[in-house]
Amino acid sequence: MNVILIDDDHSTVEMLQTTISWNTLGIDKILTAYNIQQAKSLFQEIAIDIMICDIEMPNGTGIELLEWLRNRNSNVKTIFLTNHAEFNFSQQAIKLESIDFILKMSSIEVIEAALRRAVNIVKTIEITNRYLDYGHQWENSRGLFSNKFWHDLCIGKKYTEKAKILLDAKKYGINIDFHIKSIIIYITASRSQEALQDWNHTETDFCMANISSEVLFNDSNSSYIINLEKDNKVALAAICHPGVISFQMADIKNMCQELSDLYRKIMNCHVHFYISEPCYCEQFPDTLIKLEELDNNNVDSTQIIMWNMEESSNYNLIEKNTNIDFEELYPLLLTGQTVLLISKVKEFFMIAQEQKLGSQFTCRLSQHYNQILYTAIKEKNLEFNCILEGERELLLYNHSTKSVYDLLKWITISATRFSNELQNQKQPPSVITEVEKYIDENFQNRITKSEIAHFVYLNPDYLAKFFKKETGILLSDYINQVRIEKSKPLLNDLSISLSDVSAMVGFDYYSYYSTIFKKNEGITPKEYRAGNLSKMPRYS
Q: N or C: which end of the chain has fewer CB within 10 A?
């Protein structure tokens, strides 16, 4: 995958080239252009996947370039950079289907997040194009009817009699034998996983079904992969007939492990596999119900689980005596001991697995944790929206009673944020003091928000918001104020040139220093020096 960086400011292009983790994003080729004409030449020579482009440039804007590309049917994914958040530009960018519209002063993390979305879209299109070339044939082929037959058979929606099963099987050209047993592999993945947030349900289900089909059946569109269409998770059933797939359990487990590795590599997601005992085709609906129960009752992190009928029907109720005391969680949460809290929750899950506690345990733990979280937030005079502030957090919260994965993620995220809020309550003056001290000692050097944040152990974006909230001034403006004050004594020394004064207090360019000085003092550095010079005593 490749990307082109377009900006008339060479330093901006260089900064993007050197600071963004391109390899991590899966981008292996970076092209650069410093004006519209250079960019057009490259687009005419090379197929480019992603474009990061300045909007305002000499001899043409980024919007005009994207219009030119769209007129030539280019589907390049575009991220615009600008110094000014102008509505007209953002409106045009949206109309031209750009991915994002970002201010140049934004952090690298913000730009990388936009790039990650662009990369996911490009990957989705590549995967879709790879498989949808057969789209029309797929809709009209026998495979579609065959897949629907197995789907209806698995969910017990249509077939209650063997005669009806045989009639439809014959109609669709399917050979079916009631005396042969098959194995069902039930494949699930929680939709709340962060890696799946940029995928819609259709894309996720389609991609996972095709990957499963290729690995298990060496066919990208096997009718034996059934999409069970669940809202809170991807749920697929792979029907494995003898002769089509090896019935050696070691081979099936190896294929599931290969699938797990592929899902992690391609989609970066965590998947569970539940392998049934051999069963007859009329037993498919009941078998899938049991596998679904096994998934709902699963409080283990094991990815590949072999179904045992006797064990699966032996889950205890939470009301029975256990060694689990949920009350142990509250003091850990209230005192911000997040690591110990999460460790205790994992200990609960281990006990639950040993005692075969099922989905009722997950539900009860979720309800109890959310109750103590509300209580702790109220006791510490915090706002719940500090904890539940994003779509993913809301999804985890809503699914926490149904999914062990979502519950553990929700507890980890919410407890960590609660602990951070406690720390912010306790230490705001010392953080501001440390920031001001760092700036006072390093004003003459190039200071970045990330450097200061690293010094005080905070997230860069959070630090900027926190500093503004506590002081009423932007962090960048405060740095400039310190530099201006430090420059005043130097301006009184006529042996130091104005440009040297600018460099000595940390400004790269005198013109910028002069602009900031006038903004703060109402006069330029030259006028300030001249004014002080006129006040000095004259000796004849």
A: C
Can you tell me the distance from the alpha carbon of 307 to that of 316, in angstroms, rounded to the nearest whole number?
17
| 3-state SS assignment for residue 173 | coil
CA distances 435 to 426, 442, 452, Å, are: 16, 11, 7
pLDDT number for residue 249: 81
Q: Give 130 or 454, the one with higher predicted confidence.
A: 454
- Fold for 2-132, please state it: Rossmann fold (3.40.50)
Residue 384's nearest CA partner among 357, 364, 414 is 414
CA distances, 506 to each of 94, 426, 474, 483, 499 (Å): 38, 33, 18, 7, 11
Neighbouring C-beta atoms of residue 25, cutoff 10 Å:
17
User: Residue 187 has which token pair?
Assistant: 């494949």
497: left (phi over 0), alpha (psi -120 to 50) or beta: beta
The neighbouring-strand residues paired with 483 are none
Torsion of CA 411, 412, 414, 416, to 10 degrees: 140
d(CA 272, CA 235): 10
Per residue in 151-210, pLDDT tens? 888 888 777 678 888 888 887 778 888 888 999 999 998 877 767 776 778 888 888 888
According to DSSP, the β-strands at 56-57 and 60-61 are antiparallel
CA pair distance 420, 460, nearest whole angstrom: 14
Task: Find out whether 466 and 431 touch, Cβ atoms under 8 Å.
Answer: yes
Task: Please name the CATH architecture into which domain 143-312 falls.
Answer: 2-Layer Sandwich (3.30)
Predicted local distance difference test score (pLDDT) of residue 32: 95
